[in-house]
Design brief:
Length: about 325
């Protein structure tokens, strides 16, 4: 019980309900356009930060009241989704890094471990969707070691689900597995060589580059927005990320640096930052501040479209 004699579990489920409602409002907002909806995302991040902290501080009491591990995983999964959604809207690599951290925690702590072996089809689908979303994040971050680990895990889970839920149709998930296997098979030519992204380790700083004589340096032109679109039939793709748009996306970003190249470096975070205060674990490093060299310009915002209609393309471009 709290000081106001309200049960801990009641406070928790009230926070869950509030977070669910705010999440529903932002989940389907477009990932493009100049309307950034920053106020919406600040509010939903705030409530999920509060919810995550509350369940950490009261874990034992909540478990005794009936809280299940997959319900903790559901919170972490939604936070990871929110971070990835913000990455799509802003192209800021720090959000992508935060999303990876949450998904990795879900996998390592096995929050959805019993999904495929339980009798709960809904839980099994949650586990599969979480893995598929984590795969996308790992692809964009070029974390190929984790990508192959997740693909193997996904194959096993889909087979288990087919055996345990024979009345359900898992053809869509079989297609997802086929898509990622084909994707990786075609993309192997780009493995074990320098990344497509501009790399601080392998390339000169942009300030040292020579510009063409016709370039007007005073105007300081920079690429701020880009639309990456694909129209071909039968393209190699995973979900709606085709291989060509993936490579274009990589070419338009700076390679993550900082802690990605110095994994053992210690740092202290700012507790007021949503990204640092909400992540699993208490010893997290300040990824948001150390991921990218602050002297580099920001990544251009990118809209990734798969076979858009003309009206959709025009709506995104204005």
């Amino acid at each position: 019980m709290t000081q106001n004699n309200i049960p801990i579990s009641e406070i928790y489920w009230s926070l869950v309900d509030k977070a669910d409602r705010k999440f529903s409002r932002v989940r389907d907002l477009p990932h493009y356009g100049r309307a950034r909806y920053d106020s919406y995302f600040h509010k939903v991040f705030k409530i999920y930060t509060q919810l995550w902290k509350f369940q950490q501080e009261n874990r034992q009491k909540l478990v005794e009241a009936g809280l299940k591990r997959w319900e903790i995983g559901e919170i972490a999964s939604r936070i990871a989704q929110l971070y990835y959604g913000q990455y799509l809207r802003t192209s800021e690599a720090s959000y992508l890094s935060e999303s990876y951290i949450f998904y990795e925690a879900i996998l390592s702590r096995e929050y959805f471990k019993d999904g495929s072996s339980s009798q709960d089809l809904n839980l099994a689908n949650k586990q599969l969707r979480c893995l598929a979303r984590f795969l996308i994040v790992c692809l964009v971050l070029n974390r190929r070691d984790m990508v192959f680990q997740l693909v193997d895990h996904l194959k096993v889970l889909v087979d288990e689900c087919k055996r345990n839920f024979q009345e359900a149709d898992f053809r869509d998930w079989k297609q997802v597995v086929q898509e990622i296997v084909r994707y990786l098979k075609v993309d192997t030519a780009f493995m074990n060589i320098r990344p497509l992204r501009y790399s601080l380790v392998l390339d000169s700083h942009p300030d040292t580059l020579q510009y063409p004589s016709s370039f007007d340096a005073k105007r300081g032109l920079r690429l701020r927005d880009a639309i990456l679109s694909s129209y071909h039939h039968n393209e190699v793709k995973f979900t709606e990320l085709t291989l060509d748009t993936f490579r274009m996306l990589q070419c338009l970003e700076w390679e993550p640096s900082g802690l990605f190249y110095q994994p053992n470096k210690a740092s202290s975070g700012n507790a007021n930052n949503i990204g640092q205060s909400s992540a699993p674990g208490s010893n997290r490093s300040n990824h948001s501040q150390e991921l990218i060299d602050p002297t580099l310009p920001p990544n251009p915002r990118k809209a990734i479209l798969y076979r858009p209609t003309v009206t959709h393309f025009i709506a995104v471009s204005i």
